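If you are new to this repository, start here. Below is one unmodified record pulled from the training split, so you can see the exact layout before writing a loader.
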Amino acid sequence: MNLVILQVFYAIFSGIMEVAAIPNELLPLGEPLIALFSLVPLYIALYRARTCREAFLLMFMQALTVHLGSSFWLANFRDFAVFTLGASALGTALEAGLMGILFFLYPLHERMPSRLEEYGGLRAGAVSGRMLWFCAVWISWEWLKSTGFLAYPWGTLFLAAYRWKLLTQIAAITGVWGVSFLYALCSALTAEGIMLLAGAAHAQAPQAVAASYRQAALFTACAFAASGAYGLCAWLMPRISEKQLNTIIVQQNIDPWEAGDNEGVEISMRITEQAFRRMRDEGHEPDLAVWSEGVLSRPFPYARYYYSDQPESESLSAFIGRMGIPFVIGGAALVNPAKKHYENSAILFDRKGEYAGFYSKIHLVPFAEAIPFADNPLVQRFMEDVVNFSAGWSAGTQYVLFRVPAGRGGFSGRPLEYGRPAQALITLDADGRAIPQITEQYTGENGENPDNFVSFTTPICFEDAFPDVCRQLHKTGSELFINITNDSWSRTKSAEYQHFAAASYIAIEFRTTLVRCANAGYSVVLDPAGRILADMPLFTEGAIGVQVPVYRRVRTCFSVMGDWFAWLLMGGIAAYALLRLFRMRAGAGIRCVRVYVHVQERQTHPQPL
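And here is the target side for that same chain:
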């Protein structure tokens, strides 16, 4: 019993270390150094676990500690603390417990006989095998908790890695899973070193055991060196923007759930105009203004009539028309009035203040925005009477690419280098004269110049932390991401910076610019390497005009292959499980044959009495 209590303490202590490494109230951007060793106690505890039940308990407690310690601010999500914090903590811990059983499977087949072989120097790859198994299962765990309806990619190692930019650059190849893999690998190596020192007295061939550890250490060093070298090249690589989008980013510092619609709009208009004038005074013509998620409460398309008259001091449509640039504003869309299906949307207005269309959030917050069986009358009654909440959002079904003019002036015609086919025929008519339709293709006077436009997509809220959504948005032809979000309800710095740290990876993964417009922060512009180009402090009212660089679209390994690294590790786990199953069955078959042969021999040559 005392041993189990000690193991549980190790698991909880590991969770506390991970909480300290992730962006928190004391360390706003986290501490990667702590993250390198945060899983050491968990590794030792799982290695010493004697049953699947113990392994389940250890992972359950570690994940529960991390979730409650790093995401405590979920309790501030309206009146949904029982769902957003309580249910999510329980669900996350249960998932982790099941993964704990998987952690246990590899050591389960390496009990005393295998340990004796290892201490005797007969199993040179034992240390590396355990480390790789641990890392593979850990990445599978982070992938599981970051995928699907219940996805919540917070409380992960890659969140803690934000500050060490040279190591995060590999996300362009492996996604965030490669980053977490490095940190888990370091923890595993450290834990193996501690256990090696503790068990040195039992080793019959200490030099061989030490050689096995050196082999694992060399692999770890090579992994870090290769990642660091690539990261250095990616960080120092010169990138020249092809065009720019002069953008006004508005941070209202007002919770739209508490403030009235008109108050939020009026504050946004005031600080937008101030930033607009400052940008013009600096000699830059604004191209776009962005307001955060949920500013407009009236649902579109029907609200276009309302905002043509409101607010009374100056209507929203009139204000946008006076500014003379397109606006992207967070609002709502009513897509099925009969069923009361509302979507959380980014609304595009043209430079005259006319409604142009919307993109709706596809990945919703489970049990807060997305209520399972929300159309069922019993569920609706429960939500209204017990939770005091009438309905959730409906998920969007369309990946939308917005395209706006940028960089006014310059060459207006379509450059001749664009759109020319590999082969062409230039022919004259029967009178030997040029054919106008053909000649137009070689004058460059017709058609729009793509350099005068910028195409972007708008992941909403925590969609910027989900590569599966962003991959589909990127495939539409997006040249940059503009995220709009409302994190003001959290009322904590840690929530704002955790969201930012998670979102920062999409700039690296897709090597594109990321603009974040948050109503209370963290509003920021990142370049394709994750550098901060411009930002605003948290929980302050203001707006900034930024010359947002737009770079040539590139196809990174991650943008093409997605979560290939996580799938590779999960494939390795499955292959090992099948191999063990095959060996177990083969061993059972051999034993059966031996018994059968023995019985036949007894029958053929009976023993004398």
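Two things worth knowing about this chain: The longest strand covers residues 327-336. DSSP finds 21 helices and 13 strands in the chain.
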